[in-house]
Amino acid sequence: MNQNPLLQSFDTAPFSKIKNHHFLPAIKQLIKETKSEIDVIADNPVAPDFKNTIEALEYTGEQLNRVTGIFFNLNSAETNDEMQQIAQQISPLLSEFKNDLLLNKKLFKRIKEVYQNKDNFNLNPEQNQLLDKQFKNFSRNGANLSEKDKEKLRKIDTQLAQLSLKFGENVLAETNAFQLHITNEEALSGLPESVMETAAQTAKENNKKGWIFTLDYPSYVPFVTYANNRELRKKMSVAYGARAFKNNAFDNQEIVLKIVNLRHQRAQLLGYPSHAHFVLEERMAKSPENVVEFLNQLLEKAKPAAEKEFYELENFAKKTDAINQLQKWDGAYYAEKLKKQRFNLDEEKLKPYFKLENVINGVFTVANKLYDLTFTEVFNIDTYHPDVKTYRVTQENNELVAILYADFHPRPGKRGGAWMTSYKPQQIKNGENERPHVSIVCNFSKPTSTKPSLLTFNEVTTLFHEFGHALHGMLANTTYASLSGTSVFWDFVELPSQIFENWCYEKESLELFAKHYKTGEVIPMELVEKIKQTSNFHEGMKTLRQLSFGILDLTWHSKDPSNSNDVKSYEKQAFSSTRLFPDVKENCMSTSFSHIFQGGYSAGYYSYKWAEVLDADAFEYFKENGIFNKTIASKFKENILSKGGTIDPMELYIKFRGKKPQPDALLKRAGLLKNN
Predict the structure, then answer these.
(1) pLDDT digit string (tens) for 211-233?
(2) Of 69, 364, 578, 652, which cross-links 375 as Cys (Cβ 3.0–4.6 Å)?
């Protein structure tokens, strides 16, 4: 046990010393130690006050939190069979520990006493927020239940923890299991040379001749966008949509039904009509009714535009290739052709201007111009994979702001998509401001033997998005870790990420980093203009797609799902108001909807659109005063990025903007306002 690196004190995570077998004993030991810390607080004979109860509880389990953070981050970014088995053992232990904490009678009694007497303690706003958060955390999660119901809650939570892990493992296994192996070069017609080169490299890595395409985004998206062979596009599209929906060992249908039913039972046990009612009580939206109203308002504006765009696309496919019925595997393909015809912009022509290293320098330069941050790549910090880059982030006087990890390319042990996470939170303790260790994880095309990693414009916006989250983590400046950085209401957390995407569309910003990887030539301004013009291309259809996901999420979580025993038909019903393409019987969205069944977005997928209203309104403020205006940037840093969850988000937003957000800013930007 003494040799276990996870039980030693460390600053940056000691990845090279950690072996899989270290995790389980370390977590068991740290749970034991944390329980002892909690017992000391619960058994304290001194009358409860803020310091000996609320603050003391905040500082328990720090090493446990760090070690579990390392484990689950690795299980997403660099997993293997052994790790997944360990996760299935660790998950119930943590679930049991969490319940032991939240259902601890003596501890809750002390918290309640401090809460009821808070006016006597002369608390500052952040201390008030911490007290409020802790009290709600206990009262909302079963502290007031009878012993019998507490036992029911424990069982439900353990099951849910294991089911969501299994859900994610199945999606990853299904993604990795599919390969489209092509040996006939004619079948590659339409595909850009760079896409073919990557596919040839994948085949070579698999000891096969020809080309291999996978369901990883950098392989899948270009294939369905450019391949002329309609049958092969169909094969790829159907395979992607059928993940974990094949009645095989990795099928998620039963898991989906179990998860939604257990979530509903849990909410009912805690006195809420549904899981969505439970979740949304602690969000800016406050209730499912408010979310439904919000989604419907956007649907009213987006649906006519989406139907018009779809009709145009269908006509275009009919004229171009005599396609009578547009299918899902035709959407991206004909949209790309139509966009090219309408704007004379070929997405592939943009890629040479977006070499990954240049785009990384671009986000760093934008962050420097806005927030005076300097990023220096360092090579003495341990990483979990050779692909991972590490940076020391500083401000004037070389003062450390954060450590940043960046992991950019797909591999078999890494789940799809892109995300930001943390290996060490920011907090101020014993007079020292402990700085955070933040990580961004993406899945961008790898360099090939002849070309560096060149990003699509969509990948550029993804990098800016995740970096916006990272800024929220890195610039955190609060006393308590549980209120720091991205520890905010879920429908507020996407504001820093989504606002940062706006700099991708601005000439002044693009000139800093969009340079041709061979010639160094800055991206021509007519291309910048076209990027701006095309930013609203098919905005109606894009909005409808996002709304459909939000509606599906809410359909699963805002009512009693116990009568539904067929995932597919339940989903079809949810999509009825947003469907444009014919349904594909072999496909099901829910079985691979990791955001809501594995990530933390259940009853919260609407947050992306909610935060878009905030980001459009906030960026308008920058545009009015200059996109690199230091005064506005300082206000954003001071009121949004540094404050975490210490103050109500709407209050923070008004402090930054001077007024509440206007939804019209989003509709105007999206080109969905009637008078536009």
Answers:
(1) 999 999 999 999 999 999 999 99
(2) 364
Look up 58 and say whether it is catalytic.
Answer: no
| φ, ψ for residue 203, nearest 5 deg | -60, -45
Report field, pTM of the whole predicted structure over 0.85: yes
Phi, psi angles (nearest 5°) of residue 393: -105, 125
Bridge partners for 181 per DSSP: 212
Whether pLDDT at 675 is above 60: no
Name which of 367, 288, 349 is nearest 553 in CA terms: 288
The DSSP line for 587-622 is: --SGGG-HHHHTSS-TTTTTHHHHHHHHHHHHHHHH
Predicted confidence (pLDDT) per residue in 481-540, tens digit: 999 999 999 899 999 999 999 999 999 999 999 999 999 999 998 898 888 888 899 999
* Cα dihedral 541, 501, 600, 86 sign: positive
Residue type, 491: D
- Which amino acid appears at position 524 of this protein? P
Q: Residue 541: which pLDDT band, with cuts at 50, 70 and 90?
A: very high
Q: Which residues contact 332 (CB under 8 A, 6 or more apart)?
A: 221, 224, 225
Q: Is residue 36 exposed (0-12), middle (13-18) or buried (19+ Cβ within 10 Å)?
A: exposed
- Mean pLDDT of the 141-161 span: 95
Provide the token pair at 60. 């328990």
- Given the residues 314, 466, 506, 539, the one annotated as active site: 466
Count of H helices and E strands in the chain?
27, 9
C-alpha closest to that of 338 among 534, 52, 144: 534
Q: Exposed, middle or buried by CB within 10 Å (0-12, 13-18, 19+), for 398?
A: exposed
Q: 366 is written with which tokens?
A: 């934008």
Tokens found for residue 460: 């550029």
Structural domains of the chain in order of their starting residue, each with its CATH number? 5-144 (1.20.1050.40), 178-241 (no CATH), 352-537+608-669 (1.10.1370.40)
